[in-house]
């Protein structure tokens, strides 16, 4: 009865406090020191301790992630053995949301409120000051002594509550004597503080005997919050000693995340022996060189094609993880990822050829090298595909010199019959006619992933002169790319014939 009463008091305080101070500053990356428990509510023999926290769909706990209002409500709801049902009363809590049953139930019980505008703001963070104030109100106590933190003044709205939290051992500050009252509380901090308030002091020996590995890959056994997370994540009964619990009948199942690289929530992780690799620095796994950011476990392996734990191919470039079918640029090379996750090698897709390593190739090493050098010179990783195309167009405008040549392909000739020869002539001489300009634009566009680009051998102007340009279909509309005519007729600067519709071009074009 005592435990149920304490829990009811806890959730009743939620109504008044969750809607106060609803916004918080960005969290400080400094890791707090582990607070030593000073005083706790005594647990009862044979008491059932329900699991009140669960991992994500990916099997993670995310200990350093911010505790949101939705997660807080879910955590309190999970402590109820027979929670009431509820209906939606908040405009921003959709019926299909994972937190809707918890929020609606607690609102139905009149123990949880929202904001004056009818919203709950489920993704808003709960701050460290807000959290300890809830615990303090539940306890009904005042601190017996003052406290000192460099960033908490005596007139701070939660000064007394922060002092009480330190006195009772629920939550302390940092090694530099700061508390960070406006920083969002992390999931690890929230669980640890709530355990200490509820008197749920984990029995480390029993947990070590029963569990051979952590339930969550991102909660390593050596972390300061490991045992508190295990205490909160598992249903069990508790036989109590003077200072801790002896856990009995503790069911468990280890998260099944296999060793190898994983893409979780859009980020790359490496699991070895059931745990995230969290040692900061470089490493090599299955031939892949990676860099680990540290405790978060986030890895990078830019410009790499990585085989994930389940055999799926993952392509990484500048922090972007490509898992969908299609063309992807990796460190300046172009690859095609098939629907089954594998790279296309020694094959053709939409007239684009890919070599044994999966890289796009024109079929000529000389052309590939020349085109890559230009792209490396004029583009940066932060550019969009269109910006890169424009940079290449401008390069041709400024750097290529026109030289007449009467060796013209037939009107309407397929590009495969003349682009390679024209491009090699340009590389050899450093100058060329319109067919050379068009060939260069064509190969640059395709290297950038514009597989729809066509090199056209047609006619131009009122005299119907032989001419070549690049046509690029975008969303069903054909656009012209013609840096040769642009440089000849518009010396004031490039762009007059960059992605121009035929109907809007300053000259006539006939295919």
Gross geometry: elongated
Q: Please outline the major beta sheet.
A: 5 strands, antiparallel
Q: Gyration radius, to the nearest Å?
A: 32 Å
Distance between the termini: 87 Å
Would you tell me which CATH topology of the domain at 365-510 applies? Answer: C8orf32 fold
Describe this structure in words.
The protein has helices spanning 2-17, 69-78, 100-108, 128-139, 159-168, 187-198, 204-210, 226-233, 365-378, 385-399, 419-429, 434-447, 483-489, and strands spanning 47-49, 236-240, 245-248, 260-264, 267-272, 275-276, 281-285, 288-292, 299-300, 305-307, 313-317, 320-322, 326-330, 333-337, 347-349, 352-354, 360-361, 401-402, 431-432, 454-460, 465-474, 477-481, 498-501, 509-510. It contains 13 helices and 24 strands. The termini are far apart. The longest helix is centred in the first third of the chain and has 16 residues, at 2-17. 28% of the residues lie in helices and 19% in strands. Among the domains are: 260-361, left handed beta-beta-3-solenoid (Ribbon); 365-510, C8orf32 fold, CATH 3.10.620.30. The protein has a five-stranded antiparallel β-sheet. A three-stranded antiparallel β-sheet has the order 1-2-3. It has 511 residues and is α+β, with helices and mostly antiparallel strands. Mean pLDDT is 81; it is low at 1-9, 11-43 and 249-254. Strand 2 (236-240) and strand 3 (245-248) form a beta hairpin. The chain is elongated.
